[in-house]
Amino acid sequence: MSALAADEGARVVAVRHWLVGVPLKNPILWATGVRSRVTRMLVEVETASGIKGYGETICLLDYIPAVFETVVKPLLLDRPVHDTERLFRHVLGAGYYHHQRAAVYAAAAAEMAMWDAVGKIAGLPLHRLWGGAYRSDIEIASYLFISSPEELAKLARTDYDAGYRSFKIKIGLDPQQDLALVKAIREELGPHAHIRADVNGAWTIGTAKRMLEMLKPYDLAYVEQPLELTDLAGHAELRQSQPIPIALDESAYTLQEVANIVANRAADVVLLDPHQAGGLKQVLKAAGLCEAYGIPVTLHSGGELGLSQAAYLHTAAACPNMILAIDNELPYLSGDILKVPFRIENGHLRVPEAPGLGVEIDLDAIARFEVDRIEGAYLDPRRPDWFPQKPAY
Hints:
By secondary structure, the protein is α/β, with parallel strands linked by helices.
């Protein structure tokens, strides 16, 4: 087959998308708000040769489907399905170079679907297209959205006994509770558990200095996003003034933001997310940048359904410096959109080996979970006058 004919067969001829809302088993609370379900946008691309690829993205705010429908979808049609880099740059060129955070989520869903189709065309799982599996068994962090120290200790022990060794807790609620939560989980699990604490930007720099000093006895793997996301100078100061590693997530959406973190020596760990970066290729680039400076990376969780979960596993497999357990909210979900959902075993997930993302979509499940609006993202309906403030204290 000629190259021209191959490109014609790989041309995108149809695109469709769905908004799905999967209820959580229990609402979760953290410094940024309250969430009762995860809302995701799913995308299907079909090529002229009949290959279908699927993608997924976080969909917490109303501009995401709007950008997809008005900008990304028209740019997908008639494009070679392997043309992922030009698609992302084309979306930025449609007015989003200076507003990347408004475009990355919508672009990411399309890019993931394209990669899934490319892998199916090649007959290879994605990690093999990206250099092979540096690891094939991915460690998962137990992610505990618990505000009661006693309940936190109890659930952490259950997960430890089930094989987890890395734990992520949410702090940034108030100083006394923050300390009580960290103390409770460390005393329950002992010295061998890796414990990370996420502040979600709730601290001022003065509070961060005080809190980090008081947290030193508990040997945290890192404290995540202690300050507001734009304060790279403050994060660099915290790195230089105390021994607890500083991780950045909300500051590290795009490749350019990760470059600024590295240039400002603002983080010991960087959390990446393909939805927040604009695609899987952007995360691979950011991970490589961090690798060059000796910075380990991991993945942020936003309530991934099966497509994104598969993409995370391929990404973690392919990045040598993704040496930390990846965040995961799978146990909170009441359902999924795969025919065979993932199951965590002994605190790990295996990397799929089938072509593309390596998973099979369940269209019936999509129909059950399909919604027409975003709900339960940040605000708390039980407290209509409340909203999250950053910094909070």
